[in-house]
Specification:
Length: about 350
């Protein structure tokens, strides 16, 4: 008499499940207890973004070959209720560390560096808002630090008398805080930490292009101010020199700059009203001649070089189409036709 086939199938399934469980358990134990290379002295940077899941973190760790198994990392964190303790920031890790050591480090705020990215074209007020959002500074702290900054002699590109006494700029470092990704210590952070990092980076960038400081045809502050307008007005990097040529030509010919981005600098709602256009606001370059008093954002080195090396052309007008391309025109009629066609 043959044995019950259902019983055979059940035994087979159970055996298979036991084998799979044993394999997974062995993989799990190996993954949490055995480092990738316990003899390694290599230091590897890991950035954990705010809101990133433990699964995503484990995948990044495995991709960087800091851990053996994302599976082991994930379940160890979940089973020991450690996934809720992970903090965002930048951590320096090693393949010689175990999963437990890694989780202990990335759960310790003292081991973290906060990561802030200042994109090209951001304003100081935008940076202040980012820091507050990251909860490493209170709203207004960064703005206050910029206003109270007094170490101008350290940087040859900063003219304290011009910025603070002649122009009396509300935010005198606007334009000089170089856009980049910065790593900060969230446990001991002060707003001045970021100010010095960004100013030092600005110095580094212009030192790589000595012609910026050695040339005498454009004052440094005017150059950075023009670069900031170009940064905000033109999306396409390839068109920046052409737009720079148009804007310098307008200035030299007694035209108004007619750049909406300058007036938007003074607005919080990103909208321009008819009252704004009629105002004598010094940033209203549709009505007030010349450059605005200071930069309207923090520009990239590419925008600064475009302002320094403009392309001459017959164009007097430009606009940015909805697809991001720049359309040029030699006359107002042609410019109006471009508006109707591309906006």
């Amino acid at each position: 008499m043959s044995k019950n086939p259902s019983k055979k199938i059940a035994v087979f399934i159970i055996s298979g499940l036991l084998i799979i469980s044993a394999i997974l358990y062995t993989k799990y134990q190996s993954g949490i207890k055995t480092p990738v290379n316990k003899e390694s002295n290599e230091k590897i940077s890991l950035i954990i973004k705010k809101g990133q899941s433990v699964k995503e973190i484990g995948e990044n760790l495995e991709t960087k070959e800091i851990i053996k198994s994302n599976f082991a990392f994930y379940w160890y964190a979940r089973l020991h209720d450690l996934d809720k303790n992970i903090v965002s920031g930048r951590f320096v890790l090693s393949p010689s560390m175990t999963v437990a050591e890694i989780l202990a480090k990335i759960s310790d705020p003292k081991e973290s560096e906060a990561v802030i990215t200042i994109q090209e074209g951001l304003k100081i007020r935008d940076i202040d808002a980012r820091l507050a959002e990251m909860e490493i500074a209170k709203p207004g702290d960064f703005i206050a630090a910029v206003k109270n900054f007094n170490d101008y002699e350290r940087y040859s590109f900063l003219d304290k008398k011009l910025l603070k006494e002649t122009l009396k700029l509300d935010l005198p470092l606007e334009g000089y805080l170089y856009p980049d990704t910065y790593f900060l210590d969230p446990t001991e952070f002060t707003a001045n930490d970021l100010i010095y990092k960004a100013l030092n980076n600005f110095k580094k960038k212009i030192d790589e292009h000595p012609e910026i400081m050695t040339q005498s045809k454009i004052k440094m502050h005017d150059l950075v101010t023009m670069a900031s307008i170009i940064e905000r007005e033109v999306i396409s990097a390839s068109d920046r020199k052409m737009v720079a040529g148009i804007l310098w030509k307008r200035l030299n010919s007694g035209w108004k700059l007619d750049a909406d981005a300058t007036l938007l600098y003074t607005k919080t709602d990103n909208k321009i009203t008819s009252a704004d256009l009629a105002s004598d606001n010094p940033y209203n370059t549709r009505k007030v001649g010349g450059l605005p008093p200071g930069p309207i954002c923090n520009p990239s080195i590419d925008a600064i070089l475009a302002a320094l090396n403009p392309t001459e052309s017959n164009y007097w007008f430009y606009l940015t189409a909805t697809d991001g391309t720049t359309k040029f025109a030699t006359s107002n009629d042609e410019h109006n036709a471009n508006k109707a066609k591309y906006l």
